[in-house]
Task: inverse folding
């Protein structure tokens, strides 16, 4: 099913029963390292998978024709690392623990701030208590006072409504962003075991959230969050509404990265993250 390197294979749904449990056990909480995320962005990043001689599974890909590899399950042996860097130039989604080891081996390591995942305490997002969240509460209060709203679990019968929300979100945008992945996530949410919520305003589909657990079940990552922006306060509302229905077992919510977008960074920082899942890139330094 997964070939031996240097042969590689495209990611397929048939690999999920094997890879998903392994990825769920990773402790670092890197949002890219869930099966759903890898599968849904397989075309955008040209992901492929292989097994190394030392038994580790690695992923290869290309961003803007620049090759890279990722090694979520640990660092390959030194000679294999050299071979991978020679073929793929850089390593992405390097965890903090891996970064320290790579630096000790004299590989060049640098922070990838644009891809840091934002971490929030689930309870903070659900309650929004204290002065620091007063503006958020005001937006939510205005939304509640101005609109008749309803929320439902995002199960199969509501997928067509979520697709309608996604299409409205896409309209008028020059950049499709994650539209293709978001659409496939809805169509294959059952196979990928994604869960979420959908929200209606005045009887019309207005917003949805979709994600899954990671970090050994201690965190919930929001892969997709879309809304019809004509409803003032809807973003603040769905942020709190979804956090409030998540089980208490999730200590944190991972809202993924800002990709260097200043507006998105400001929005994510406004929710006062308690920390980040720091990521690094590495090269052979030669």
Result:
């Amino acid at each position: 099913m997964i070939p031996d390197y240097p042969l590689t294979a495209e990611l397929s749904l048939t690999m999920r029963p094997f890879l998903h449990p392994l990825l769920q056990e990773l402790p670092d909480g890197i949002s890219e390292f869930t099966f759903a995320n890898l599968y849904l962005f397989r075309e955008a990043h040209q992901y492929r998978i292989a097994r190394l001689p030392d038994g580790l599974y690695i992923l290869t890909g290309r961003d803007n024709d620049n090759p890279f590899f990722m090694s979520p399950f640990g660092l390959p042996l030194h000679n294999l690392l050299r071979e991978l860097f020679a073929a793929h130039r850089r390593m992405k989604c390097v965890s903090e623990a891996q970064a320290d080891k790579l630096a000790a081996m004299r590989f060049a390591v640098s922070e990838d701030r644009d891809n840091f995942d934002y971490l929030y305490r689930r309870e903070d997002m659900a309650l929004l208590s204290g002065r620091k969240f007063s503006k958020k509460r005001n937006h939510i209060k205005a939304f509640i006072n101005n609109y008749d709203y309803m929320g439902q679990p995002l199960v199969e019968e509501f997928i067509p409504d979520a697709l309608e929300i996604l299409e409205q979100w896409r309209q008028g945008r020059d950049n499709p962003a994650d539209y293709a992945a978001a659409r496939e996530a809805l169509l294959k949410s059952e196979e990928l075991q994604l869960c979420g919520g959908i929200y209606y305003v005045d009887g019309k589909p207005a917003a949805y959230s979709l994600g899954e657990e990671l970090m050994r079940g201690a965190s919930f990552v929001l892969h997709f969050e879309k809304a019809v922006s004509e409803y003032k306060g809807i973003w603040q509302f769905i942020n709190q509404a979804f956090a409030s229905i998540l089980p208490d077992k999730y200590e944190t919510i991972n809202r993924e990265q800002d990709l260097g977008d200043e507006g998105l960074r400001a929005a994510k920082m406004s929710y006062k993250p308690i920390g980040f899942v720091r990521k690094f890139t590495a090269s052979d330094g030669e």
